[in-house]
């Protein structure tokens, strides 16, 4: 009898799953799925990770200066003394001790915060997703810098926002450009939800927004009834002087502040946070719990133990020294190997340099030739929602050694000069 039942059951499973009927899953996608497109940077990883390629594309922190033995001790002690808590589910808002410590970290940039207003997230990218989910209706306008962080653009597109870029210069977002963008959007009858920006060593440009512009931008947004999402991954990574106080330090009601430990400790732990006005906290917690239930308790307590037991400020200083040497290697190499008609930013911190070439050079079309020359970068179009930036590119100096940076910049400079010569465009040296 048992054998007969098993035979019948297997027959039913076969009939049920081996029908040969097409699934046509794409026809069943929600409309928002049309806005899910791969990141140009992520698409480069497979190629750029090949050992023979000098990757100036990715923004991976360099962990060569990180004391791995120390972190191993921290993790071992955590598991042996508090493993039952560390390996268990935790609070949807984040561990209370870590939220207190996050407030201490933010105090370095002038922020006075209550731990109750902090939501711990799986990297600041999740915080950006949650904010977008709560605030953006299809067709709403989000104002962003020109250029802007590719991960943010992808999130806004996923929630069917209309992204409008605001003019920038060598000092960051231009206040008058912001005024004009607000007027233009509203004259078209469209609703602006918020301004998203990275004021410190911006990704991708590397520029630092001066303190006086921060105040002016906050005043403009306050008068226009627009709040600011301040994304600050790089604020503690200034090379020669501290960055200005965070915008959140000046306005606690109209600024949502996003932070992360990915750039100052380790990206693999995936611990970030959002500091929000009290009226928003409950909605963010509910949204977070619906997607991940709770951030990793183990990762949170690892970070918390590290902050409590180790000289983390000294470690950040050592990262700054490491990145400064690499920044200098990149700027020196650009001076030596790039054409005179090229222009680039000179960042005082962070990870990136933004290069602008003559407009006839299409950096996206140039990528295959660069790969043949064994160097990778990110084309400028990745950082615009409207296809702009085709003659620009982002170079990252955070991960390669200074020697590899020089090799990569030399190779890329040769590719660009060859293309300019082929097109008969301008001075090459």
Largest sheet: 7 strands, mixed
Distance between the termini: 87 Å
Annotated CATH architecture of the largest domain: 3-Layer(aba) Sandwich
- What class, by secondary structure content? alpha/beta
As residue ranges, the low-confidence spans are 1-5
Q: Please give the share of residues in helix.
A: 40-55%
Shape: globular
Q: Which percent range describes the beta-strand content?
A: 5-15%
What count of domains describes the coordinates? 2
* CA gyration radius, whole angstroms: 24 Å
- Overall pLDDT metric: 92
Number of strands: 15
CATH fourth-tier homologous superfamily of the largest domain: Type I PLP-dependent aspartate aminotransferase-like (Major domain)
Please count the helical segments: 14
Name of the level-1 CATH class of the largest domain: Alpha Beta
CATH topology of the largest domain: Aspartate Aminotransferase, domain 2
Short description:
The protein is of the alpha/beta class.
What are its keywords?
Aspartate Aminotransferase, domain 2, 2 domains, 429 residues, Aspartate Aminotransferase, domain 1
């Amino acid at each position: 009898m048992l054998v007969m039942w098993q035979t019948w059951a297997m027959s039913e499973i076969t009939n049920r799953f081996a029908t040969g009927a097409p699934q046509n899953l794409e026809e069943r996608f929600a409309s928002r799925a049309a806005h899910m497109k791969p990141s140009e940077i992520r698409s480069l990883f497979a190629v750029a990770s090949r050992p023979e390629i000098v990757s100036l594309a990715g923004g991976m922190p360099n962990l060569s200066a990180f004391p791995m033995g120390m972190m191993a001790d921290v993790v071992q002690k955590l598991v042996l003394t508090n493993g039952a808590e560390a390996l268990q589910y935790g609070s949807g808002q984040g561990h209370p001790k870590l939220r207190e410590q996050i407030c201490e970290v933010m105090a370095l940039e002038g922020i006075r915060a209550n731990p109750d207003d902090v939501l711990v997230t799986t990297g600041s990218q999740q915080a950006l997703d949650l904010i977008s989910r709560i605030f953006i209706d299809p067709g709403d306008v989000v104002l962003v810098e020109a250029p802007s962080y590719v991960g943010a653009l992808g999130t806004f597109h996923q929630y069917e926002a209309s992204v409008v870029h605001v003019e920038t210069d060598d000092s960051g977002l231009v206040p008058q450009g912001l005024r004009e963008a607000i007027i233009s959007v509203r004259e078209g009858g469209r609703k602006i939800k918020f301004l998203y920006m990275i004021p410190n060593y911006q990704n991708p440009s590397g520029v630092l927004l001066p303190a006086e512009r921060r105040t002016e931008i906050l005043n403009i947004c306050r008068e226009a009834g627009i709040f600011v999402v301040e994304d600050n991954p790089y604020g503690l990574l200034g090379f020669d002087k501290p960055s200005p106080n965070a915008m959140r330090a000046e306005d606690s009601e109209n600024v949502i502040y996003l932070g992360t430990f990915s750039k100052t400790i380790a990206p693999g732990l995936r611990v970030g946070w959002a500091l929000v006005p009290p009226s928003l906290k409950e909605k963010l917690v509910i949204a977070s719990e619906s997607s991940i239930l709770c951030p990793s308790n183990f990762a949170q307590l690892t970070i918390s133990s590290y902050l409590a037991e180790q000289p983390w400020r000294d470690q950040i200083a050592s990262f700054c020294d490491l990145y400064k040497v690499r920044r200098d290697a990149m700027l020196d190499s650009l001076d030596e190997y790039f054409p005179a008609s090229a222009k680039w930013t000179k960042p005082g911190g962070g990870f990136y340099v933004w290069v602008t070439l003559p407009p006839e050079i299409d950096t996206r079309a140039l990528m295959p030739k660069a790969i043949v020359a064994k160097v990778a970068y990110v084309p400028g179009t990745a950082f615009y929602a409207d296809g702009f930036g085709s003659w620009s590119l982002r170079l990252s100096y955070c991960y390669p050694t200074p020697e590899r940076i020089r090799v990569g910049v030399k190779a890329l400079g040769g590719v660009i000069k060859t293309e300019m010569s082929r097109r008969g465009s301008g001075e090459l040296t």
